[in-house]
Amino acid sequence: MKIGVIGTGNMGSILIEAMITSEAVSPEDMIITNRTLAKAFSLQKNHPGLVVKRDAADVVQEADVIFICLKPLDIYPLLEEIKDQLRETQIIISITSPISVEQLEAHLSTKVVRMIPSITNRALSGPTLWTFGKRITDEDRRALLDFSTLFSQPVEISEPITRIASDITSCGPAFITYLLERLIEAAVEETDIDRKTAVQLATKMMIGYGKLLEKNLYTLDELRKKVHVKGGVTGEGLKVLEEEARELFHHVIQKTHAKFYEDQREVDRHFAKD
Fold first, then answer.
1. What would you measure as the largest C-alpha separation in the chain, in angstroms?
2. Chain segment 132-180, per-residue pLDDT in tens
3. 114 and 225 share a domain?
C-alpha cells in the first residue's frame, strides 16, 4: 500500500515521522509533497527512500491512501485541483476538523475519512480520532485502525463531538504545556530555584504522572485525593486553583468552538459552490 501525504507542515511532518518511525510504512512506500518543497526534501534527508513529488497531482497518481494535511481554507482549492484524477478505490483522509466527512464525500467520488492526529503520536502514543464516510467498508475500517495502532491509540468518534474531542486530544498538549510553563515561571520568580532545575523537575513529574495514568494505578479523582493530604500544603494550592481557575477551561472551550464555527462558515461557502 502506497501512502501519500499532501502538506508537510507541523502536523503533516509529525504524521510522516510517526508512520515511518513506527514502521507502519516504509519510506519507499510514502509519497509526499508540500507547497514549499524544501520542507519535503528536509524530511527526505532524514528518511532516505522517501519519495518527494513536485505537486499534489503527482501524489494522487501513485498513492492508495492520501492524507491531506492542510489548513481548512486550503482544502477545497486542492480538491478542485485533484478530484478529476482521483480513483474510486483510493481513500482520502483529511486531518482538519471544520470540514465534515459528509462534505468531503459529497464533493468526491472516492472513499473518505477524517483522522485528527495529536503531537503525542510522534512518540508513537496518544490518540488519533477517526470518523468514517459511508463508502468505507468494514475491511477498510479495520485496516486503517490496525494501521494507526502502530503509532497511536485510535478512537472512533461521531461528527457532533469532533471539536471537543480535538480540543482534548490535539489541542490539549499545548494547553497543558502552557500551564506547566506558568508553574515553572512562578517557581523561578517566587523562589530561589533556577529555571533549568525547575524545568527538569516539572518534566520528570509529567513523565511519572503519565505513567501513573497509563498503568491505571489511580483514576484522576483518586490521584488528586492521594496527593491532597488533609491540612497539607497541596490543599492550600488547590484552594487557589479552585478559586481562580474554575472557569478557565470553560472559556478556553468557548474560544476554540467560536474559531471552529468561524472556520466552518468559511468552509461552507466553498462547498456551497457544488
1. 68
2. 999 999 999 999 999 999 999 999 999 999 999 999 999 999 999 999 9
3. no
Say if 269 falls within a structural domain.
Answer: no
Q: Please tell me whether the overall predicted TM-score, pTM, comes out greater than 0.85 for this model.
A: yes
Mean pLDDT of the chain: 96
Q: What is the pLDDT of residues 174-207, one digit of tens each?
A: 999 999 999 999 999 999 999 999 999 999 999 9
For the chain, what is the domain count?
Answer: 2
Looking at the structure, do residues 73 and 14 belong to the same domain, yes or no? yes
Domain assignment present for 267: no
Q: Identify the pLDDT of residue 168.
A: 98
Q: What is the CATH number of the domain that holds 210?
A: 1.10.3730.10
Across the 274 residues of the chain, what is the mean pLDDT of every consecutive 10-residue run?
Answer: 96 97 97 96 96 96 97 94 94 96 94 97 97 97 98 97 97 97 98 98 97 94 90 93 94 97 93 76
Q: Which domain holds residue 148?
A: 3-157
